[in-house]
Amino acid sequence: MTDSIPVEAIDCDRTARSMAERILHGAGSASILAYRTSPMISCEAMMHGISRGGRLVVAACPDEADPVRGMTERERFSVRMDITKESPEPQFRLVAATVHLLGELEWQPEWVADELLTAGDLPNDVAAIASMSRGRLGFIDTDRCLVHDSAGVHSFSFTELVSTDLRPGFPAAGDEFEAHHTVMALSDDSLRQIRDAVLKGTVEGRICSRQAALAGCPHIWDRVLCADVDCTGITMLTVEPTETYAVFAAFENEAGSLDDLGIQVERLVANSLLTPRVQSC
Asked: What is the mean pLDDT of the chain?
């Protein structure tokens, strides 16, 4: 079990920063657009992550006819990078968050990629693509990132998101499905109790968003879906016939492992059963 760090339920920047850290370290699907070339060049299939040296790295495997193949090594290209993070929720396609940034992309020569691969400095998914016969490795330098999540838009500096220990936030990309399963293994009644407890103030949290919605699929009405789970809490989505709303339920302490997550989820369930205190005059 990791050291316990209290969670501030109304700190939207903390949860957004957690999401951005996880996305930059490899969660989600990335694409780039070199917007100053003529014509513009896009790459929709690539892996990304943070190297051991703290750089944002990408890898792609374009075929010979792909304009990405013709981008010169060691030349700096102005690019927009978009990363879309979907929820692991299998019943419903749900975008949990997106990250957007402007930066300078520089494709590296083979010898640089070989050195980094040999040293084990690249994330596994990036290394797998970069080591292929047509694989290309690139560095992207950027100053700021924009994060769109259920609570709105947040702006962070790149150095703020890439911590000195270079570890991805919890859960890492490889743990996302198990973390999601830990939450969704709860009964529908328990999930509703947590949601309702946030709305009543029994459990710390907040309403992230609420919007009108028409119709939708009746089989998911009043179901509580897990849009995201991170070290600070659970973001839950409820779809009703006339509206859709997202609620964030904060953990008592931050979770740094799957074992921690199980403990914090159990505490949420227990706290959701508490009766709100009524203050006398």
From this structure: 87
For the chain, the first-to-last Cα distance in angstroms comes to 43
Predicted confidence (pLDDT) per residue in 59-109, tens digit: 999 998 899 999 999 999 999 999 999 988 877 788 899 999 999 999 999
Whether 208 and 247 have beta carbons less than 8 Å apart is answered as yes
Please count the CA atoms within 13 angstroms of the CA of 86 that sit on its side-chain side: 9
Handedness of CA 25, 26, 31, 37 (dihedral sign): positive
Domain boundaries, the chain: 12-168, 176-272
**Lowest model confidence (mean pLDDT) among 64-73, 216-225, 244-253:** 216-225
CATH number belonging to domain 176-272:
3.20.180
SS3 191: helix
Q: What share of the chain is helix, strand, coil (3-state, %, to 5)?
A: 30, 35, 35
